[in-house]
Write a structure and sequence with these properties.
With about 150 residues, the chain is mostly helical. It has two domains: about 90 residues; about 45 residues. The protein is about 85% helix and about 0% strand. It contains six helices and no strands. The longest helix is centred in the middle third of the chain and has 33 residues. It starts with 11 loop residues before the first helix and ends with a helix. Pfam families: MFS_1 (PF07690). Belongs to the major facilitator superfamily. Phosphate:H(+) symporter (TC 2.A.1.9) family. It is a multi-pass membrane protein.
Length: about 150
């Protein structure tokens, strides 16, 4: 928010841009998911799962490099484009992989387990963001990453 509305507590431009981004990413995902599904049939689920995960790195690198207005807009465009592939690809491909690896009688429980773990992770991350400060979030990540 500092990049587009410096020293302001509220920024309507950020809200509008976020809504526009979500709409474009949703439409793009709807159009790209059949293509991603077909590509995962051809090249394999594991191989195609690396693409959305890798694409998620680029927008973060842009914002980590510099938080000026120009870099924000570059982040915004790259995040919108990569979000079309990454947001739904990360959710759908593991479910398809679980369906491929399980026998027909265990398939429903495997899909439910994969979807449940993803939903629980989303819920826990929402709670972490709401109740911990930014400094505490990085401390939690740092200790969990380096104490394992």
């Amino acid at each position: 928010m500092d990049a587009i509305c410096p020293s302001q507590d509220k920024c309507s431009l950020a809200i509008y841009l976020s809504g526009f981004q979500q709409a474009i990413m949703g439409l793009g995902s709807m159009l790209l998911m059949p293509l991603i599904g077909n590509l995962s049939d051809v090249y394999g689920r594991k191989a195609l799962l690396t693409i959305p995960v890798t694409l998620l790195i680029f927008p973060s690198v842009i914002m980590a490099y510099r938080r000026t207005t120009n870099y924000f807009y570059a982040y915004y465009v790259i995040r919108t484009l990569t979000g079309m592939i990454s947001d739904t690809g990360i959710q759908c491909i593991p479910i398809a992989y679980a369906a491929d690896c399980m026998s027909e009688e265990n398939r429903a429980s495997a899909i439910a387990t994969v979807a449940g773990v993803g939903s629980a992770a989303f819920l826990c991350s929402t709670f972490v963001v709401r109740f911990l400060s930014t400094a505490q979030i990085f401390l939690v990540w740092f200790h969990s990453y380096y104490n394992d």
